[in-house]
Design a protein that fits this description.
Radius of gyration: 23 Å
Number of helices: 10
Structural class: alpha/beta
Distance between the termini: 26 Å
Largest sheet: 10 strands, mixed
CATH topology of the largest domain: Rossmann fold
CATH architecture of the largest domain: 3-Layer(aba) Sandwich
CATH class of the largest domain: Alpha Beta
Strand content: 15-25%
Shape: globular
């Protein structure tokens, strides 16, 4: 069988947000290099309800539950047909799009994770909404994010596009993987990609720190940091050009003295209209005890209205 490219698990739940995720994949992923599986976990009615059907007083309620289940199945089928149609209209062949509706076994998030580990390269999921104030995403997306060590994750918020892609780059292996991922999976011949690197400044608010790091020395450190990232920038550009990203569609930008690298990335995305942010799961300062780097973790909280592609 011919290679169909990267295998994408596009998780849906029948909501408008999950349809936004479908629209994003249709516009962002390359039809000739992606095999998309639309996947929905159907919530099951607890067995105790069926047992209650033995009681004549519950008989009509049980009938209503069975009707509800059939309606949910029908709605899921209609959603899958609509979603498949969007992908086909975007150029995905019938052999590159399939659907799968699974009955809930352990829980929606666990079932998605179990499916994702069956050879998928990318999982796409909507951020969802949390009932808790200050929590940036729903529980299903959060659980899938924490488990995403063997596959890349596209976390979809708002109604993002891939017309402009911001690649958060550092000199780590994770940063280079993010570059290659963008070049292979988000290169649609008509979009623009920017390699972006933010350098944190040195805070001198504490007493005595300014004597240790005078202004001239801080400026020197920033200049040295700018020079140190240039080899990684050049290597990234080389890889993207090999992946047929034209020079006219590629740019780079380095900013210095930022207080937060994650905040600087999101600010750049919002000010310059980047709908997609690509980042490695762990960066140059990765700590093995943590599944995700500090910058990436912060981006999952801040980039609520973007597509955040976290590359494993």
């Amino acid at each position: 069988m011919a290679d169909k490219g990267k295998k994408i698990l596009l998780t849906v739940d029948g909501s408008e947000q999950s349809m936004d995720a479908v629209r994003y994949v249709a516009s962002a992923a390359p039809p000739s290099r992606a095999q998309v599986v639309l996947y929905q976990v159907m919530s099951k009615v607890p067995e105790v309800f069926w047992d209650l059907g033995r009681d004549p007083a519950w008989e009509k309620k049980i009938e209503s539950l069975r009707l509800w289940e059939k309606q949910q199945e029908s709605l899921a089928d209609v959603f899958m047909q609509t979603a498949s149609g969007l992908l086909h209209d975007a150029g995905f062949g019938t052999e590159n799009v399939s659907t799968k509706i699974g009955r809930q076994k352990e829980g929606i998030a666990r079932d998605i994770i179990t499916e994702a580990r069956q050879g998928y390269d990318i999982v796409v999921i909507g951020r969802g909404k949390s009932n808790e104030e200050g929590v940036p995403m729903g529980s299903v997306a959060s659980k899938v994010l924490n488990a995403a060590s063997t596959f890349s994750l596209w976390l979809i918020g708002g109604k993002p596009t891939a017309e402009k892609v911001l690649i958060a780059l550092d000199s780590s292996e994770g940063g280079l993987r993010a570059v290659k991922h963008a070049g292979s999976m988000l290169n649609r011949d008509n979009n623009h990609m920017t390699l972006f690197h933010a350098i944190r400044g040195i805070a001198v608010s504490s007493a005595g720190i300014e004597d240790i790091f005078p202004e001239a020395y801080r400026r020197q450190l920033m200049e040295e940091a700018e020079e140190e990232i240039q080899p990684a920038m050049q290597l990234a550009k080389t890889h993207l050009k090999r992946l047929n990203v034209d020079a006219e569609r590629l740019s780079s930008k380095v900013i210095t003295s930022v207080r937060s690298r994650a905040a600087a990335i999101v600010q750049e995305a919002r000010q310059e209209g980047y709908g997609t942010i690509v980042v490695g799961r762990r960066g140059i300062s990765e700590v093995t005890e943590f599944a995700m780097g500090r910058v990436t973790n912060k981006l999952t909280q801040l980039a609520k209205d973007r597509a955040l592609c976290i590359v494993a």
